[in-house]
Design brief:
- By secondary structure, the chain is α+β, with helices and mostly antiparallel strands.
- 36% of the residues lie in helices and 25% in strands.
- Strands 1, 2, 3, 6 and 7 form a 5-stranded antiparallel sheet that branches. The protein has a two-stranded antiparallel ribbon with strand order 4-5.
- The longest helix has 61 residues, at 5-65.
- The chain is rod-shaped and about 115 Å long.
Length: 190
């Protein structure tokens, strides 16, 4: 078998094309691996954020339920709400997963509650409906105030140390003494 000069030049071309194809396949696999790795990190970060928000909501619910708890003798509390720290074990494995620092709730607004006698009330954006205090007997209770409290939290992941901030508004009904002690910034109400 004799080799012609043209055949000798083609013997190395197959090897060269094979090497180029292997290089392209390697680059494609590497790019796919990097893409899937970054997607996995994104999903992990989203899950961690959702867990942090759930931990914050759990702490906010605890604070909201005890926002203006009555004193031991049953009288309405005049003590301003305090800042708290809540340790949350989100997966119930016995170790703290998140630390939730709840700032002292702040009364941002309070308006006198009125009984409309069952009529309709026009709210923001022209939405109408039954009054929230309608038929509740508020007209027989002197000086009740609808208050809105701002509750701010900072959630810290125990593993990574990353933080997430969550804020929520909570509505509470106050009597006149509570309103003057906790929400009235302009002085005594007539």
């Amino acid at each position: 078998m004799t080799h012609t000069p043209a055949m000798r030049r083609q013997q190395g071309a197959a090897l060269l094309i094979g090497m180029i194809m292997l290089l392209l396949i390697t680059l494609t696999v590497t790019a796919a691996f990097n893409l899937s790795s970054s997607n996995l990190k994104s999903v992990g970060n989203l899950q961690t954020r959702n867990e942090a928000v759930a931990a914050a909501n759990r702490a906010i619910e605890e604070v909201a339920s005890s926002l203006l708890a009555p004193d031991s003798d049953g009288t309405p509390s005049l003590t301003p709400p305090q800042a708290t720290v809540s340790l949350v074990d989100i997966n119930n494995d016995g170790t703290t997963d998140y630390t939730v620092v709840v700032a002292a709730p702040v009364c941002v607004r309070a308006t006198k509650a009125v009984d409309t006698g069952g009529g309709t009330v026009t709210g923001p954006s022209g939405i109408t409906g039954g009054a929230s205090s309608s038929g509740s007997g508020l007209s027989t209770l002197p000086d009740q105030y609808n208050s809105v409290w701002d509750i701010s939290t900072t959630v810290t992941d125990a593993t990574s140390g990353t933080t997430t901030a969550v804020r929520q508004g909570v509505r509470a009904l106050l009597n006149k003494a509570q309103f003057e002690a906790l929400c009235n910034t302009t002085g005594p109400t007539p």
